[in-house]
Specification:
single chain, Urease, subunit C, domain 1, globular
Amino acid sequence: MLQAIKANIVYAEATGFVCKENAYLVTEDGVIRGVFDSLPAQYQNAAIEDYGDAILLPAFADMHLHVATPSYIVWTRSCAIPALTCANSIMRSPSKSCTN
């Protein structure tokens, strides 16, 4: 089955984390075929789940122990996604909260 998820997508490459806004993650029979800025022609028949402004992240093990590391802060600052900016703000000042 061909499926696509549309969201703000963060994933890892050999050189580090990549952030793509309003991108598509395409899977076929449970196998990831790729992450694309726009849906390629060969995947136009995919069932699309649009998650709007949600952020699709890889699973982070023990995130509570590792999220405040310098590498996390560097890659989230480069993403310019509001929820990640807010998370960084809270880590620097836990008394803050994110509100719309």
